[in-house]
């Protein structure tokens, strides 16, 4: 597959690097990561994974057949500046929330093959839920390459570009919702008298068990829930509180708001770009 280069050395780049190495998709010497200026971070990644690191984006672009854009959306212009001329046959994979093909193409200053991907940090353990969308310049072969890349670190669905903000609100941000749930469950467990280490193990196993039940059972989650909920029992008492306090509405609104935020990132960025162009 050639080498893969990451521009941006943050949480998402690290999760992908860890997963790709774990899945033996790339050897450490086939992975190169660049960031803006933080040498300590690059040293840390190099030590942990044995990968190549650099501040020299030109070198990265020349060495890589796939270039992953993994900076924050606000940094895309600076992140791409200086490499436009060097992009020829490389496949550009952007994991940036909200930023459209149109914007990336405008910054690159040329029509080229771009895949937008929305993975999540569970990529680090090969369990990312990723969706990708392909620009019109991407060949079927490049789509397959990209799918196998993300399937090596989890599952990968092909969607339309206009569905990516929804994917971002659902599964891109999704791990954080689950971590928040676990934080709350741990707090409650301690308040009802359990030790934190015991509580953590019980919560983790409860999540793993429930996830696997959803994954393998033919029953709808609502049926699985019904089977836990004895009439007048403990679950019913607990779920009554969740209903009274708007749990479902909170989660639905949370995912809608995160989706909307991805759209705002695009709009904010495009405003900024227009301001830069006017100067
Ligand atoms: N963290 C997550 O769970 C997910 C993040 N994403 C997307 O991934 C991207 C990165 O997110 P994180 O890793 O969380 O951010 P982060 O803040 O941890 O990392 C961003 C990295 O970009 C680098 N950077 C900034 N400007 C640069 C430049 N001009 N040239 C080279 N490198 C530059 C920074 O030095 C840093 O290493 C974002 O666009 C986000 O929307 C997508 C899916 C999930
Ligand atoms: O919070 C964010 O904007 C990024 C995108 C999805 C997960 N993290």
Automatic annotation (TrEMBL):
GO molecular function: pyrroline-5-carboxylate reductase activity
Domain Pyrroline-5-carboxylate reductase catalytic N-terminal: 4-98
Chain ranges of the Pyrroline-5-carboxylate reductase dimerisation domain: 161-265
Gene Ontology BP, a term: L-proline biosynthetic process
PROSITE patterns for the chain: P5CR
Enzyme kind, highest EC tier: oxidoreductase
Residues annotated as binding NADP(+): 7-12, 70-73
EC number: 1.5.1.2
Chemical reaction(s) catalysed: L-proline + NAD(+) = (S)-1-pyrroline-5-carboxylate + NADH + 2 H(+); L-proline + NADP(+) = (S)-1-pyrroline-5-carboxylate + NADPH + 2 H(+)
GO cellular component: a single term: cytoplasm
Location(s), subcellular: Cytoplasm
Alphabetized InterPro entries for the sequence: 6-PGluconate_DH-like_C_sf, NAD(P)-bd_dom_sf, P5C_Rdtase_cat_N, P5CR-like_CS, P5CR_dimer, Pyrroline-COOH_reductase
Keywords: Amino-acid biosynthesis, Cytoplasm, NADP, Oxidoreductase, Proline biosynthesis
SUPFAM superfamilies from the UniProt entry: 6-phosphogluconate dehydrogenase C-terminal domain-like (SSF48179), NAD(P)-binding Rossmann-fold domains (SSF51735)
Pathway participation: Amino-acid biosynthesis; L-proline biosynthesis; L-proline from L-glutamate 5-semialdehyde: step 1/1
UniProt similarity note: Belongs to the pyrroline-5-carboxylate reductase family.
Function summary: Catalyzes the reduction of 1-pyrroline-5-carboxylate (PCA) to L-proline.
Protein name (record): Pyrroline-5-carboxylate reductase
Organism: Metabacillus litoralis
Lineage: Bacteria, Bacillati, Bacillota, Bacilli, Bacillales
């Amino acid at each position: 597959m050639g080498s893969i280069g990451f521009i941006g050395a943050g949480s998402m780049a690290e999760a992908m690097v860890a997963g790709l190495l774990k899945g033996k998709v790339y050897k450490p010497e086939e992975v190169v990561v660049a960031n803006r200026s933080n040498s300590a971070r690059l040293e840390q990644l190099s030590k942990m994974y044995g990968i190549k690191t650099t501040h020299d984006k030109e070198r990265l672009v020349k060495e890589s057949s796939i270039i992953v854009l993994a900076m924050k959306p606000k940094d895309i212009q600076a992140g791409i500046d200086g490499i436009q001329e060097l992009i020829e046959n490389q496949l550009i994979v952007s994991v940036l929330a909200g930023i459209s093909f149109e914007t990336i193409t405008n910054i690159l200053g040329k029509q080229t093959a771009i895949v937008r991907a929305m993975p999540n940090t569970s990529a680090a353990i090969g369990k990312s839920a990723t969706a990708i969308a392909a620009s019109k310049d991407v060949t079927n072969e490049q789509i397959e390459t990209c799918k196998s890349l993300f399937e090596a670190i989890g599952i990968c669905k092909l969607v339309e570009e206009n569905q990516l903000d929804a994917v971002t609100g659902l599964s891109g941000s999704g791990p954080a919702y689950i971590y928040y749930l676990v934080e709350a469950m741990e707090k409650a467990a301690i308040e009802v008298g359990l030790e934190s280490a015991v509580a953590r193990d019980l919560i983790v196993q409860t999540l793993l068990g429930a996830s696997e039940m959803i994954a393998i059972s033919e029953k709808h989650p609502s049926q699985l829930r019904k089977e836990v909920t004895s009439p007048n029992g403990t679950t019913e008492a607990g779920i009554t509180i969740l209903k009274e306090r708007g749990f479902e509405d909170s989660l639905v609104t949370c995912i809608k708001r995160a989706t909307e935020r991805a759209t705002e990132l695009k709009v904010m960025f495009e405003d900024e770009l227009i301001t830069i162009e006017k100067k």
